[in-house]
Amino acid sequence: MRTFAPEDELDLVVIGCGAGGATLLQRLARAGWRVAALEAGPFWDPEQDWVSDEAGSGDLYWTDPRQIDGSDPVPLGANNSGTGVGGSTVHFAGFVPRLHPSDFHIASADGVGVDWPLDYADLRPHYEQIERELPASGDPWPWGEPHRYPHRPHPVSGNGEVFLRGADRLGITAKVGPVAITNGRFGNRPHCIYRGYCLQGCKVNAKASTLITHVPDALAHGAEVRTGTMATAVEIDQRTGRATGVRYLRDGREYLQRARIVAVAGYSIETPRLLLNSTSARFPDGLCNDHDLVGRYVMVQGAPQVGGRFDAEVRMYKGPPPEVSSEDFYETDPTKPYRRGYSIQTVSPLPITWAEHVAAQGHWGADLRRYMNDYVHWACLGALCEFLPLPENRVTLTDETDRHGLPVPLMTYSQCDNDRKLMRAAETTMQDILQAAGATDTMTIDRFAHLVGGARMGAGPATGVVDRRCRTFAVPNLYITDGSVLPTQGSANPALTIMALAALTAQDLVSGSEHD
């Protein structure tokens, strides 16, 4: 791997090497730029570091201290934050749906949220390219803008068969995919072996993550990935207002990596924390925070799960967790008492997670053992509900400091009435599907997934931290290329959209159109 010295002025340094950071790094390295990524976590070796074991996978998650508050505080860590090269793509389930065209204009169409300053058409070519690079496997997709995937769908397991059977009986359309999991060999990656440990890193590398897709290509084209580096502040020239580099800690020492352009890709907690911690005479309230927008409009998706018990064995763990899905309920239905919608997918909690779900319902002792003895008879569905952006849902800094001496972030989160109605509706639909498929018992688990927002895109500095090309309004050579820029979130997993936005930003940087 090529390496640079901190005093070398790079063309671009990116903080974070997950979905957005690694995509940006790869695109610019291919264009001949001198680029490096600063990653707080390690450089994972799938063969050595990952295990087929739920209990042994905790190192994949960002578990540094964080505080939570609000009427509906969101647990942080295992299901929404990653550490190390690849970021959250290392432990995401591999589900890669696109946003719908409607997602970019929900304020105009539905009177909620906010419109994006760009359109679906801006991301379409990048969606298509990323789907080829991962690659994405699935049925032809009928929802949103109908499209096809480069690889055929995976075989359907027992869990998927349950969903398809119940959906068919209710007149609901369900399709296989889309997942970023190889169906057949792809380069040096093998066919998926359907072992069910997608959320534990995928030891065989059948599931895509930027660790095994975009980072190796970036390194081959001269990029550096500098691990074990904790960014503490973006350095600003107080005279010009331009970014000059990034301060970071490594092995107990502080360094300044100089760069012509800086990009932040730390995701929806760490990106606001870094900006808020980057204070100066020019930015006393935090970098890019003149309009009190940094850290605001953080969103999660309602992600309830409903399990159904069947007389026959299902063995839901066999196959990719997001195997079959439906977006029939994605768009606003004017007959319903809520706006926007939800999607439904198969999910496959492994035994430890399933035991936690069962115990949370009050089952303990002999009752818990009875449920766990029946584990192979259970199927499980999960929903992604589009919770709305609210300014009071935010990340701020506390007086407590972590092991790096940095302020510990506080995430405050409260649901609105629309969020609650939407989640109840999704739970009812999943119960109906499982019962139509023949379930003799059901169990509902309230939960949340994903993080986006906190440095959102807007039409101008009064409404957003970054513009339609992810460049900050306040600092002309500072970019943000992670999920924090999403103004709204739809009912789709965010990974593909984050990568597409980063690819769009890279395209503009390489072409020079960022100066327009």
Architecture overview:
By secondary structure, this protein is of the alpha/beta class. The protein is built from eleven helices and 18 strands. The strands form four sheets. Strands 1, 2, 5, 6, 7, 8 and 18 form a seven-stranded mixed β-sheet that branches. A six-stranded antiparallel β-sheet has the order 4-11-12-13-10-16, with helices on both faces. The radius of gyration is 22 Å and the shape is globular. Pfam families: GMC_oxred_C, GMC_oxred_N. This is GMC family oxidoreductase. InterPro entries: FAD/NAD-bd_sf, GMC_OxRdtase_N, GMC_OxRtase_C. Keywords: FAD, Flavoprotein, Oxidoreductase.
Straight-line distance between termini: 34 Å
Tell me the number of helical segments per DSSP (H or I, 4 or more residues long): 11
What percent of residues adopt helix (DSSP H or I)? Answer: 10-25%
**DSSP, total strands:** 18
Shape: globular
| Main sheet overview | 7 strands, mixed
In CATH, the homologous superfamily goes by the name FAD/NAD(P)-binding domain
Measured by DSSP, the beta-strand proportion falls in: 15-25%
The CATH topology turns out to be: FAD/NAD(P)-binding domain
CA-based gyration radius: 22 Å
Count structural domains: 1
Structural class: alpha/beta
CATH class: Alpha Beta
Low-confidence segments, given as residue ranges, are: none
What order do the helices and strands follow?
A: EHEHEHHHEHEEEEHEEEEHHEEEHEEEH
**What's the rounded overall pLDDT mean?**
96
